[in-house]
Structures are given as structure tokens and as C-alpha cells.
Amino acid sequence: MKKSDFYYDLPEELIAQHPLEKRDNSRLMVLNKESGEIEHKHFYDLLNMLSANDCLVLNDTRVLPARLYGTKIPTGAVVEFLLLKQISANRWECITGPGKKAKIGAEFDFDGKMSAKIADVLENGNRIVDFSFDGNFFEVLDTIGQMPIPPYIKEKLKDKERYQTVYSRELGSAAAPTAGLHFTEEMLDKLKDNGVKIAFVTLHVGLGTFRPVKAENIEEHTMHSEHYFVPEESANIINETKKNNGRIIAVGTTSCRTLETVADENGNISACEGWSKIFIYPGYKFKCIDALITNFHLPESTLIMLVSALAGRDNILNAYKTAVDEKYRFFSFGDAMFIR
User: What is the largest CA-CA distance in the chain?
Assistant: First the structure.
């Protein structure tokens, strides 16, 4: 199967540059995965489409304000740091740019609130960085860090919380699980009142989610790994839903990947944590999820391959063509799709 099999033409003006004022006012394309039939709704219409037998699985990860701008000591040159992975209390693996200004031993200042020294340069060009600060690292980071908004969004985000889901709580992601951005607290409360079950999992989204598929033969692509955690309470809710023939509806590809990583052959879940490198593309047999709420994804990305595995490549490409024709908003701050 070729990477080019998942290409579609997207006018740049359809890439959403900012979130809507009201989260649940986004448009919702409803796609029947069996027939390919398409309906046009709004996200709040989900209230009428989910039943008391259904279980929504939400990823409660919280995005780190992981983009920092430091000034090199003593030259004052500005260098961007993007936090990737915490190695110890003060040490992180980072991407830096421009890299030539971040050689081993180079020191940087961040608004007088934090300093850093380059400890090592890895083979892939990433840096090992030792930070110095007073107090709690994450509290300092919250005052000086910026959200690592995807590169296709050119506008500056006015409110950092709009790149967080309303239920985010486990700090550790380099990017938001964007399908969940459409939910409001009020909408979740109404769904619970209607008997819909809510289960939380955690998968910390890595920057690999933005990396393009380079191999033309997609089977040769190597997925990045991301850390997940499934609590016992959520496992019990999911298993009970399946036992009662209810639908497991993953909110976002991250929740989907977590469930499909940990499910046994019967689709049952156990409390666990670990690292997922699962790559889902057409031909994959889903073990746990029945439906998926997701955004519209980049051409030739692993994410459009995942939704094609669930709904069929032809159905997905037709849905995306329809979305372009109907001028849906695309990507992180864009509209949503309910594959059922």
C-alpha cells in the first residue's frame, strides 16, 4: 500500500487558524463506516446521537507549554527550545533551533527565570539540556513557555487553554488530542445525564504525530512511541459496556491507539501502562473500538491511514473531498467527524 494512496488536495485557506468562540459549535460530519453515507451536523448534535449503552473514551493528557525562547550567554542570540522528553528532574531531551548556536557547553537564559546548559548532542541532532531554576520546574515553565502549536497554524494563540481539552489533567503532551477540543463541560454533563458512560485513558502525544511518512511503501514506516496509562476504573467501564453490547467510541486517534494497543483478542481491557508504537492502516482488524470521533487529518499522514482502516479508504477519501467542497475547517482547530 502506497503513501500516495492517502493523498487529497486541500486548499490552504481551509486550514483553521484559530478555535471557534464556542467549542461545541464546530461542524460535525457523520460518516457511516459501512455504507459511506454522509450527514452534516454540528458537534452539539452528538447529544442526540449517543445512547445510554455507549461509552466515550477520552484522553485526559494535558499539553506542556513546551516551546521556550532562550538568549545565549553572552551573545544574546535567540534560540528556540522544544521540550521532548524529561530524563530527570532538571534534564530534558530537546529540539533546538538554530542548532549551530546550541553546542555542548553553551548556556542560555530564559527571562531571568530559568537558565540552561547544553550537556550533549545526540545523533539525531536533538540536545540533552540541563535546566536550573528556583522552585517547581512546571510552575516556572507555565510562566515562560508557549504552546507547541502545529506548524500549519500561523496565528498566535490568544488563550493557552484553547489548546487544552476541558478535561485535561495529566501533564505530559507535546500536542493536544484535538478531537476532544470540541467538548464543553456542559456537554459532558448532559451526556452523563443521558446515561452515556465516560472513561478516561492517558496517552501523552509526541511530536512524532506531526512527522511525515517518508516511506512510499507505508508498511516500511516506523511509528514513534508514546506513553499510555489505563486506570482500573476505566478498564472496568469499557469491559462492562462491551459485555452489555454497547458501543466503545474513542474520542481521537490517541484514545483509539491506546485501546487497540492494550485490548486482548476479545476487545477486553486491563489496567496497565506502557509505550505504544501501534501503526493502524487498512487491513487492521479493530479489537475494541466501534466508532471514532476525530478531526480531519493531513494528507498522507498516519492518522488518515488510521481512519481509513476503520471506515475504508474510499469512504474516507470521498468524505474528505466532500469536506473540501463544503468548506469544512481542517486540522487541530478545525471541524470534526463522527465515524459510526
Answer: 65
Strand partners, 201: 59
pTM: 0.91
Is 210 found in the same domain as 99? no
What are the phi and psi torsion angles at 85 (to 5°)? -150, 130
291 and 217 assigned to the same domain: yes
Residue range of the domain that includes 279: 3-63+159-339
Among the candidates 115, 144, 173, a domain finishes at 144
Residue 147's contacts (CB-CB under 8 Å, 6 or more residues apart) are 63, 65, 66, 67, 157, 160, 163
Q: Answer yes or no: do 244 and 116 share one domain.
A: no
pLDDT digits (tens, 9 = 90+) for 53-78: 999 999 999 999 999 999 999 999 99
Q: What percent of the chain has a predicted confidence (pLDDT) above 70?
A: 99
CA 45 to each of CA 236, 288, 304, 317, 337: distance values in angstroms, whole numbers, following the listed order = 28, 24, 24, 24, 12
